[in-house]
Amino acid sequence: MAFEPRRGPCHIFLGDPTTALGADMKYLGYTRGDVSFAPNINISRGFADQTGLTPLASSIRDVGATPVLTAPLIDEDLAKMIQYIMGGTTVSDAGNSAMGFSSGPATIPTANVYTLACIPLDEIAEGTNGIDAPNAIWLPRVFIPSIGEFMHDNKQSDDDFNPHTVEFHSAYNETDHDGQTVNAALRIGFIGTPNADTGLTWSLPEVSV
Prior knowledge:
This protein has one helix spanning 78-84; strands spanning 10-16, 24-27, 36-38, 43-44, 61-62, 68-73, 89-93, 96-100, 115-120, 137-139, 142-146, 164-170, 190-191. By secondary structure, it is mainly beta. The protein has one domain. The strands form four sheets. Strands 2-1-9-10-13 form a five-stranded antiparallel sheet, with helices on one face. Strands 3-6-12-11 form a four-stranded antiparallel sheet, with no helix packed on it. The longest helix has 7 residues, at 78-84. It is globular and about 75 Å long. 25% of the residues are buried.
């Protein structure tokens, strides 16, 4: 019987995995602290007064998972942050750049509701750039409702970085960014490789800080 422990840090990518060589999957940089994934399986059940407080076996129903991946990111490069700040905009002129967090109410285009990949550090060589990592976590579409807080302080310890905790919540979509149908079993999220779905041709870039 196989023993498959989950251990060590991971690399996180966000974007469109359907472009060649993962060109549109942005590496989000270093993390500091626990990257946590909660599948959030949601099960409803029914009760009858005549059978007490035990739910009826015939009433058990899967009502859809609501997965969330939470990552403490420490890289505040604007090109990385704009990838997950939904509604954000960068403005550049003559080598100067600024990033706005929002310009007001607006619908986020489905094309900008990106794919998230979390690849274990020690599996980044599986396939090409970790595409076949057996313990990878994939969320085919995500929205980001919280990006944490940005801190300025005078540290009193030898750990000088201030992570901002970003939440990636799964969103449902039947197709990937190339219009290919995603297997119904994988649309909300999955652990493993997208190559398990023969209809997908996804890829990842090399890790680049």
